[in-house]
Specification:
single chain; about 325 residues; alpha/beta; 7-stranded parallel sheet; 5-stranded parallel sheet; 13 helices; 12 strands; binds (2R)-2,3-dihydroxypropanoic acid
Length: about 325
C-alpha cells in the first residue's frame, strides 16, 4: 500500500503529478481555505499533509489524525503549526526556507521604496483624476539612498534586504536580532547590531522580518511607534500580529510616522478597517514570495520533504521543536 497524502490547497499540477508518482493523493481544489474540522475530516487515514501558512495544524488536529507522520509546508513561516504537539506524537514538520529568500527580499525592498516615495498614494491620486498641476512640494517623500535602514529580524531574508540597502542604495544598516551576527556577516553589509529601542529611534526605514511567535506578538505597538522618527517608514513582510495594526493605523493617521507598507495583517485576509482609511500606507495581499518560479520551488520542496519522510529518510528542511 502506498502512503496517502492530503494536499490542503490548490497547487501546481506538476507538483501534484510528482506526489502521485509516490503516494495516493487527495487534493483540495476548492479556491478557499478549509476549516479545521474539514481539514481533520480530509486528513483521516493520511500519512502526510501538504500545507501552507493558513491551515491550523494544532493539538486537536494532531490528536484526531493518528496515522499522520509528516506535515510539510511550502511556506518558510510555520506559526500555523504546533510543532511541539506534532513532535509529541512523532509527526515530522518541514518548512520551505532559502528558496524564497531573494524573491521576498526584492518585494520587501520594493514595498519600502513605495512607502518612502509615496508611489501607491500618488498613483491613487492620479487614478482618482485629482492631478491638476505640478508643485514644488507635490508628493515629496523620504530619501532612500544614504538613509538608515533598520531591520528587525536579521535572518536570511533580513540579511538579503540589508544587502540590497547597503550595496545597492548606499544605506547605513542597523539591525536588531535576538543574537548578534558574526562579524564576517555584519562587515559586508556594513551592519551594526543595536537594541530594539535604538533601532526604532535610528531607522529612517524600518523593515520587519521577524517570525511570528508569542514573543514577537505586537513587537511593534503604540509605545514602539512613539520612538520612531516622524519622517520614518515601516514595512512589514513578516507576519500579521508582529505589528499592532490598530496602533499603526492611528500613528499613520496622526502622521506620527510618515508612511507604512504592509504585506501581512492580523487576521488576514481581513484588513483592519482603519488601515483602509489612511492614505499613507501601501497594502498588498501577502504576496512577497509570489513569483511563479519561487512558488514552484516552494511547493516542490514541500513535496520533496514528503517523499523523503514517507520513504523513511530524513527531511530536507526539518523544523525542530
Ligand atoms: C512564507 O513562506 O512564510 C510566506 O509568508 C508565504 O509566502
Amino acid at each position: 500500500m502506498r502512503p496517502a497524502v492530503f494536499v490542503a490547497l490548490r497547487t501546481f499540477p506538476e507538483v501534484l503529478d510528482k506526489l502521485r508518482q509516490h503516494f495516493e493523493v487527495e487534493a483540495n481544489d476548492e479556491p478557499r481555505d478549509l476549516t479545521r474540522d474539514e481539514l481533520i475530516a480530509r486528513a483521516q487515514g493520511k500519512q502526510g499533509l501538504f500545507v501552507t501558512t493558513v491551515e491550523p495544524i494544532d493539538a486537536t488536529l494532531v490528536a484526531a489524525c493518528p496515522e499522520l507522520k509528516a506535515v510539510c509546508s511550502m511556506a518558510v513561516g510555520y506559526n500555523n503549526i504546533d510543532v511541539a504537539a506534532c513532535a509529541a506524537r512523532g509527526i515530522a514538520v518541514t518548512n520551505a526556507p532559502d528558496v524564497l529568500t531573494e524573491t521576498t527580499a526584492d518585494f520587501g525592498f520594493a514595498l519600502m521604496l513605495a512607502a518612502a516615495r509615496r508611489i501607491a498614494e500618488s498613483e491613487h491620486f492620479l487614478r482618482a483624476g485629482r492631478w491638476q498641476r505640478w508643485s514644488y512640494d507635490f508628493f515629496c517623500g523620504a530619501e532612500v539612498h544614504g538613509a538608515t535602514l533598520g531591520v528587525l529580524g536579521m535572518g536570511r531574508i533580513g540579511q538579503a534586504i540589508a544587502r540590497r540597502g547597503a550595496l545597492g542604495f548606499g544605506m547605513k544598516v542597523v539591525y536588531h536580532n535576538r543574537s548578534r551576527l558574526a562579524p564576517g556577516i555584519e562587515a559586508p553589509l556594513n551592519a551594526r547590531w543595536v537594541d530594539k529601542d535604538e533601532l526604532l529611534r535610528q531607522a529612517d526605514h524600518l523593515v520587519i522580518v521577524v517570525p511570528y511567535s508569542k514573543a514577537s506578538h505586537h513587537a511593534i505597538g503604540a509605545a514602539e511607534l512613539a520612538l520612531m522618527k516622524p519622517t520614518a517608514t515601516l514595512t512589514n513582510v513578516a507576519r500579521g500580529g508582529v505589528v499592532d495594526d490598530a496602533a499603526l493605523a492611528q500613528a499613520l493617521k496622526e502622521r506620527r510616522i510618515a508612511a507604512a507598507a504592509l504585506d501581512v495583517f492580523e487576521g488576514e485576509p481581513r484588513v483592519h478597517p482603519d488601515l483602509l482609511q489612511v492614505p499613507n500606507v501601501v497594502l498588498t495581499p501577502h504576496i512577497a514570495s509570489a513569483t511563479s518560479g519561487t512558488r514552484l520551488k516552494m511547493a516542490t520542496l514541500a513535496a520533496d520533504n514528503l517523499i523523503e519522510l514517507l520513504n523513511g529518510r530524513p527531511a530536507l528542511t526539518p523544523v525542530r521543536a
